[in-house]
Design brief:
With about 270 residues, this protein is of the alpha/beta class. The protein has 2 domains: about 110 residues, 3-Layer(aba) Sandwich (Rossmann fold), CATH 3.40.50; about 160 residues, Rossmann fold (3-Layer(aba) Sandwich), CATH 3.40.50. The chain has 9 helices and 8 strands. The chain has a 4-stranded parallel beta sheet with strand order 2-1-3-4, sandwiched between helices. The protein has a 4-stranded parallel beta sheet with strand order 6-5-7-8, sandwiched between helices.
Length: about 270
């Protein structure tokens, strides 16, 4: 196991750096990462205090700084300490500058401005949380996406991920003994997507869930025949209503969400062709 100190230094919230670091680290195994977050670094005095901490825990420094003096001091100090440093957004900004024929605006946190898209995302998150697990069916028509599937088929985490991308999502459990309300089958605005998985994978997830709740791990909830029948019940509903279906057995939440977004984009292009 390799142990790595990772210093994420930003003149804004550091959210961009965190996402970049997460994506990069996902490509490596056997790494124990200790992340140090240094947000809102906008003065040389603040940077001096941060550098003292970095010197005590040397590692990789990834930064987004637009102030040239602060940036230069960080680069000079990292060089003196023998620490690798990476300006995370430089290649993208430089390429855009060349392509657009414009100089980049040196504004800290510019990408996080409270614009209409930001408030739309907040609205989507609030809607999605309020419409989890079949709640408030009278509002489902307002959704952008409706996810349907049996219990523990990744509906809730996928919904929250999509909400963070700005989509209003309702998710609905499909239960043999308690069918969903008829309004589900008459929705017009939202794209309804069915989520399915393999019986073995579903049983494993459900059994782990029961164990985490200190409940008996052997119930009808994880019975092979019952689970297979549940999945068949859901597949019949998907097929009867012509809903697109995504098998989440070997997909991460991010991959499932990406596939759903592609379906939304395809549907929108059919409705509104250029």
């Amino acid at each position: 196991m390799i142990r790595l100190h990772l210093h994420l230094l930003s003149d804004s919230t550091g959210e961009t750096l965190e996402n970049i670091a997460k994506a990069g680290l996902a490509q490596f195994d056997g790494v124990e990462t200790i992340k140090h977050f240094w947000p809102m670094v906008r003065s040389e005095g603040h940077l001096d205090r941060v550098l003292m901490e970095i010197a005590q825990r040397p590692g990789l420094v990834i930064y987004t700084l637009v102030n040239s003096d602060v940036r230069r001091k960080l680069e000079t100090r990292c060089l003196a300490l023998g620490l690798p440093s990476v300006a995370a957004l430089d290649p993208v900004i430089e390429a855009l500058s060349r392509l657009l024929g414009q100089e980049a605006k040196a504004r800290p946190g510019r990408q996080h401005a409270l614009d209409a898209a930001y408030f739309a995302r907040v609205d989507a998150i609030q809607y999605t949380i309020a419409h989890d697990d079949g709640v408030a069916p009278e509002d489902w028509e307002e959704a952008d996406i409706v996810l349907a599937g049996v219990s523990r088929s990744s509906k809730t985490p996928t919904s929250i991920y999509l909400a963070n991308r700005g989509y209003k999502v309702a998710n609905i459990p499909l239960v043999v003994e308690s069918p969903p309300p008829p309004s589900l089958y008459t929705l017009r605005h939202p794209l309804v997507v069915g989520l399915t998985t393999s019986p073995d994978r579903l049983i494993q997830i459900r059994r782990n869930r029961l164990l985490s709740l200190n409940q008996a791990p052997e119930t009808a909830y994880v019975d092979q025949e019952m689970v297979t029948a549940e999945l068949a019940f859901a597949r019949r509903i998907f097929s009867d209503h012509g809903w697109p279906v995504i098998d989440v057995t070997r997909r991460s939440i991010e991959e499932t969400a990406a596939a759903i977004i592609n379906l939304v984009n395809e549907r929108n292009s059919e409705i509104n062709p250029e």
